[in-house]
Amino acid sequence: MDDRVPPYRELPGQNPPPSRWAVPFTLLFFTSLLIAFFLHSPLGKVETIVIEGNRLLSKQEILDEIRLKKGASFFRWNARRAEQVLEDMPEIDDATVDKSFPGTIRIRIRESRQVALWKQEDKLVPVLANGRFLTKRPWGERPPSVPVLSDWGSKMEEGAALARELGLLPRNRLEEISEIRPGVDPVYRDVVRVHTRWGHEVRLRIKEFHKKMELYSDFRHHPPGTLYLIDSIRFVPERRGGE
After folding, report:
1. Which domains does the chain have, with CATH numbers?
2. Where is the POTRA domain (predicted)?
C-alpha cells in the first residue's frame, strides 16, 4: 500500500517558511519607531519647571547651571547629575531634583545663610555660613545687615572658620554685631575684636565664638566698654575724658 503513495514534491514558486527571528525583529522595529515618536512628542519633553528655596540665586542662574529649559528631553535629562552640579555651587548646601511624568521637574534647594561681608579693598564680598566667599557676587550699595569683616587681608582661612561660627548664632544675635576685626593676644592667635551696635567691643576666640557670644546678652545694656570672654569674663567700662 505504501508503494501507492506518491512522493512529496515541492511545488515550483512555493515560499519557504518564515524564519523564527522574523517576528521578534518586526516587533522590535515597530517598538523602536513608537519609542522614537514618543520621545519627540510633547509627552517626552519638559513642560513645567518648579524651583523652590532660592534667595541668593535667581531661577535663571539655576537653570543655566544645570542646563535645563522648557522643551528639553524629559527622559534624557539626568536629575541625579543636576543635584551634584547644584550642590557644588557655593551658595547651595543641599539640593533635591524630582521628575514626575508627564514633563514636570521640581527643584528644591537649601541655600547657605549669608552671615557676613568680607571687606576686600573697595568692595564688600558676601560670606556664607558654610565658609564660602561669593567673590563673583559683590555686595551693592545697600547698608549691610550682617557684620563686616575688616582688616583681615589674605586670612581667608580664618575668615571661613569665623563664618562657620557666625552661622551657628541665632539671627537676633548676629544682627547685634556691626564689625569684626582680628585681635592681638600673647597666647591665642585666633582672638577677634567684635564691635556691637550697642557700643561695646567683645574680645574672644574664633573656636569659641558662637558659645561665648551668647554671654553678651547679659552685658548688652551696660555702658560702653570692652568685654573680655577669653579665659575669664571681665568687663572694662570705657574711660571718658577727664576720668
Report:
1. 45-111 (3.10.20.310), 114-237 (3.40.50.10960)
2. 44-112
